[in-house]
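Dear colleagues,

As part of the handover before I leave the project, I'm documenting each prediction I ran so the next person doesn't have to rerun anything. This entry is a single chain, and its sequence is reproduced below.
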Amino acid sequence: MRFPGSPYSLREFAGMAWRRFSPVPPWGDAPVARHLDRHPHRAPDRWIGFVGDLCPLDGRDARYAEAVHAFFDDCALLVGNLEGVFTKQRGRPFRLKHTPSIFDAMARLKPLRQWVVSLANNHAADFGPPALRTTTARLNRHGIRWLGTREHPTLTVPEAGLALAAWTWWSNRRTTLLPRRDPGAPEAASAPLARVALPHWGYEHERRPRSNQRHRLPLNYELVAGHHSHLPQPLEDVTDGPLVAWSLGNFLTAKTLPVLGEGALLKIGLAHPPDAPPVVAEARYQAVRLDRTAPRQCRVHPRSSGTE
């Protein structure tokens, strides 16, 4: 039996609610910044950036530390998870509604034409098919590329060398609007593309992936960049498998609960060997804090240590 308005069983919902209002789990001994040189003899010819959840700002103004701008300066594209939809329907508990301010927040970091967002998450169907159609129409008008609906679970971005696939384990409402399994990366019509998976998976407010998540890791990708936990989870280079960012946590939110105030930035350097698929030659990871203490602001800045 599911808890009303959530994707979880009663038992799983109770655990999620307990974690949500408990002290934030300690960071542990994981590094807050990492640089992986996966193919030392191959220099990247382009960089792609990834962020976690873009949650509604509810009138707050997004501000980024200079170090966040610098982290993404050389990225041709930014990829994130758009949590929530655009609708005129009345708000309800557990359902997320965006306002146009999210576009201003995104544009402050990169021009909107350089953004891609996934819609495959538990909030995309919160207000039913009309709201999801309104959301995709707004994204189209702003020149933002998107993926993650049942009709459009994948996307190719040839100029960035990417083939993206998105799906979600969870939905707050029973729906057929969203892909619930790995659709597989789309094939390129010409040059080979780097395959990137964007799963909405795992469990909220947890620092580590559970064993059932590890058992369902898709192996036929160069990168897996997940979301849903709202806390950053480890970056892991799987032997004979993909580079995995289990979750990038939150990137923007208006909510002030401490457990919602962390995320991570990721960027990958792609190298394109002649007559071969692209490889992730380098990766850089940086944990961030979301400071919402100032009225009407959400300020994103790098985390300096695990005990900060």
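The domain at 40-302 is CATH 3.60.21 (Purple Acid Phosphatase; chain A, domain 2). DSSP finds five helices and 16 strands in the chain.

All the best with the project,
I.
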